[in-house]
Specification:
28% of the residues lie in helices and 13% in strands. It is α/β, with parallel strands linked by helices and 156 residues long. It has a four-stranded mixed β-sheet with strand order 1-4-2-3, covered by helices on one side. The longest helix is centred in the middle third of the chain and has 13 residues, at 53-65. The chain starts with a strand and ends in a 19-residue tail after the last helix.
């Protein structure tokens, strides 16, 4: 999720401060460098945060409570409501009109009290793998299939 912080940000420098975890791909720093070379009005600064979600959230909360200097947060889908209720992010409802272009789940996660507080940036999905040897050792010949609830598994 991308969220625009509502605490003023920039530390008065006029630059845009972006907060995110370490980017092992190098994609974000490359995009920031490309933008900064083209921008005449302001620069973007990357503030690297802890990779652990809990530590990242705690650091953001501390910075916001102290009047922090972050303008843009790249963060977790579970944060929008907490940020909104504390006044740490800006209501984006009137500025964001193309929510139909995004998956429904991430838009719902970014919505709190009927307002949009963040914009989906990327979506990932976790996968569940079963080890065949352990299934067989436990007396099962196969893992549950699509549509089967693991609560009712094994079938029958």
């Amino acid at each position: 999720m991308l969220g625009a912080a509502g605490c003023g940000g920039s530390g008065g420098s006029g630059d845009l401060i972006v907060s995110w975890i370490p980017d092992d791909t190098g994609s974000l720093p490359k995009l920031i460098n490309k933008f900064n070379k083209q921008s005449k009005d302001f620069k973007v600064k990357y503030q690297q945060m802890p990779i652990d979600t809990g530590q990242y959230f705690d650091k953001l909360r501390t910075q916001f409570q102290a009047g922090g200097d972050i303008d843009l947060i790249l963060g977790d889908v579970i944060w929008p409501a907490q940020f909104a209720v504390n006044g740490w992010v800006v209501d984006l409802t009137d500025r964001f009109k193309d929510s139909d272009a995004f998956l429904k789940g991430p838009i719902e996660a970014a919505t709190y009290a009927g307002k949009l507080w963040a914009v989906p940036w990327y979506t990932d999905a976790g996968l569940l793998y079963f080890r065949k040897d352990l299934l067989e050792k436990s007396g099962y010949s196969e893992a549950p299939g699509p549509g089967q609830s693991s609560r009712r598994w094994p079938p029958g």
